[in-house]
Each structure stands twice: as C-alpha cells, then as structure tokens.
Design a protein that fits this description.
This protein has 323 residues and is α/β, with parallel strands linked by helices. It is built from 10 helices and 16 strands.
Length: 323
C-alpha cells in the first residue's frame, strides 16, 4: 500500500515520504480499515517536528490521528463490526495511508449520509470543543463565549456547539471574508483582528462586562489579553498555543475567574468511554444541525502540500487527505 512515512523529524514537510509499505495486520481487538479520507491536525505538524508527544524510538512512523473508510479485516475477538461497514477511527497515528489499524475502542460507525471526509474531520475538533466547553468551560445557555481563532477546525466546531447549547458567541479571525463565513456558521459577533483589537470590541458587545467563557488556542499576547476579557466568574480554557507561548501553570485570577488547560487526549485517557459521544455528534452532522467544514482536500501523494497549506494561514475549517 501507499503511505506517508516520517523517517526523521524535521522543520519542513520534506521529511514526509510517499512510499510503499506492507498493509498492517490487525491484532486481537483491532480492525483493519481501508482508508478513504484522513484529516490533518495542527498536532501532525508537531509530530513531524518531533515536538508533540513523540520520541525518536517511534520512527519510522505514519502520522494521521483520525481517518474514515470501510472495515477490511477483523482481528481476533472482534465481533461488534462487520467487513464492509463504514467507520471512523481516532487512534492518533497511522491515517496517512491506504490502510490503517485501530482498536475497537477507537472506532465508531459512520451514519448513512455522512461522507468519509466529513467523518474523518470530526473526532479531534468536535470532541475537543464539546468536552472543553462542557467541562472546563462549563458553558450554559444565555452565556457569552469568546472563541479565539474561529476559522480553525476547533473554532468552527465550538461556535456550532455553543449555539446548540443556547450560548452567545463572539469570535475572532484574520480576515473579513473568514468573519463572514463564521457568521454563517452561527457566530453572533465576529472581530476581524487584522483591522481591530479584539479586547475593546469584546467589552463593547458585552456592555463592559466581559465574556463568561473563552476558548483560547492562539497563545502569546492573545492568551494574556483574553484573560482580561473574562467577566467575574468567567472561565478561560486554553487548548494550545498555535502562534505563541502559554504559561505552564495557568495564572491565579481575581473575582472567581479561572484559567485552565484542556487536552482531549488526556481527557479521553481518563474517560475512554466518552469517545462514544462521537455518535451523538455524527448524528447532528447527519441531521445537518452541525456542519463539518472542509477547507481543502489533497490526494495522499500531495501530503507535503497539504501540511504546507495548513501551516500557512489561508485555510478555513479542516484540511483533508483522500486516498
Ligand atoms: N488541547 C487539545 O486537545 C487540542 C485539540 C485540537 C487542537 N488543539 C490545538 O488547537 C489549535 C487549533 O487547532 P486547529 O487544528 O483547529 O487549528 P487550525 O485549523 O490550524 O487553525 C488555527 C487558526 O488560528 C487562527 N489565528 C492565528 N493567529 C491568530 C490571531 N492572532 N488571532 C485569532 N486567530 C488567529 C488562524 O485563523 P485566521 O487566519 O482566521 O486568523 C488559523 O486558521 C492548535 O494549536 C491545535 O494544536 C488542541
């Protein structure tokens, strides 16, 4: 089969090698999946660079934390899936390939009418937004949420989940065109950060009170200023610093405000059964209540171009590989 392998870590996408490798064999409790689509995530860039939860002992490796396709072969003891069934998998590695294996606990069925591309693009961003907003964020109907980086995959998901929960959403993005699309997704207020400082705008739309919850993923100055956007009792949760540093330990804040860090990987490690929440999310996708936005698709052979595209700031929503 064809796959994209990394033999050495590197700062640019040149280390991604398109090559022939043996089809993996499913072990007991695993499924072999014929991959139709795999989704790119910013974490894949860290993996390629050797900075994200990986050591050199794991090389050579196939990246790709999530993918969708059809069941090709069942490992010993697997009886809850059938050959030919459409599934989505979230095993954290292996998806940049024509075939990949996953444990049954990392696999869910794909409902009719949901494409493999949409299914592959769902787990990381929707589960992060869902559990981040409901646990650390504790977001409730009627509250204001600020989503930094609304055009990102997680941002797109968070806006829709927040509206589904009955909250009000203000979000930031780097262009007016992206802001227009974010309003179409349901954002109540958008701020084009290429034109405006977000903090005075957030204070203006909330009548100087600030927001109840911030979903932060940019880091640096944006993180620091987002703390100032919190109303008394407000909760900021950071999921990463895509473009700047975030403090190792969140700062202590006044007036019952709270800052935390949220990781979907750590969350699901502690509560593996919550992965099944994906069924409800995919049902909402099937019912067209949630939109999985695919910014651009690339064939597997062009994964280098796909990562370059993700690393730039052009995309809106998810970047996908098709096999
Ligand atoms: N902790 C977790 O569990 C978890 C899970 C998933 C993802 N993440 C992290 O969350 C982040 C987003 O992931 P993703 O894959 O959804 O991202 P992504 O699609 O790569 O998008 C990142 C977006 O950030 C926006 N941005 C950059 N600078 C900005 C600024 N100064 N102000 C506002 N927006 C800015 C850009 O949009 P514009 O061009 O519109 O500005 C860019 O499209 C990454 O850091 C990722 O590693 C964490």
């Amino acid at each position: 089969m064809k796959a994209i392998r990394i033999h050495k870590f590197g700062p640019t996408e040149d280390v991604l090698q398109y090559e022939d490798v043996p089809v993996p064999e499913p072990k007991a409790g695993e499924i072999l999946i014929k991959v139709e689509a795999a989704s790119l995530n910013r974490a894949d860039l860290g993996l390629r660079k050797g900075t994200y939860r990986i050591s050199a002992d794991a090389l050579p490796l196939i990246a790709g934390r999530e993918f969708a396709g059809t069941v090709e072969k069942l490992g010993a003891g697997v009886n809850e899936y059938q050959i030919g069934q459409r599934v989505v998998a979230y095993p954290s590695l292996g998806g940049y390939a024509e075939y990949a294996v996953a444990k049954t606990s990392e696999v869910r069925p794909v409902p009719q009418g949901v494409t493999s591309a949409h299914a592959a693009a769902t787990p990381t961003v929707f589960l992060t937004a869902w559990f981040g907003l409901l646990t650390d964020g504790n977001l409730k109907a009627g509250e204001w949420l600020l989503v930094q980086g609304g055009s990102s995959g997680v941002g797109n998901a968070a806006i829709q989940i927040a509206k589904h929960l009955g909250a009000k959403v203000v979000t930031t993005s780097g262009s007016e065109e992206k802001c227009r699309r974010l309003r179409q997704l349901g954002a109540d207020v958008t701020i084009d950060v290429s034109e405006n400082d977000f903090l005075p705008e957030v204070m203006r739309v909330t009548n100087n009170r600030g927001v109840d919850v911030v979903l932060e993923m940019i880091g640096g100055d944006v993180y620091q200023k987002s703390l100032q956007a919190l109303a008394p009792g407000g909760r900021l949760f950071s999921i990463g610093g895509a473009f700047g540093a975030i403090p190792d330990s969140p700062p202590a804040l006044s007036d019952d405000r709270k800052a935390t860090r949220f990781s979907i990987t750590n969350y699901l490690k502690a509560k593996p059964d919550d992965f099944k929440q994906l069924d409800e999310i995919l049902k909402l996708v099937q019912e067209k209540k949630f939109q999985v936005v695919i910014g651009k698709s690339f064939p597997l052979a062009e994964t280098r171009a796909a990562q370059r595209y993700l690393e730039g700031r052009e995309h809106f929503g998810k970047v996908i590989l098709t096999m």
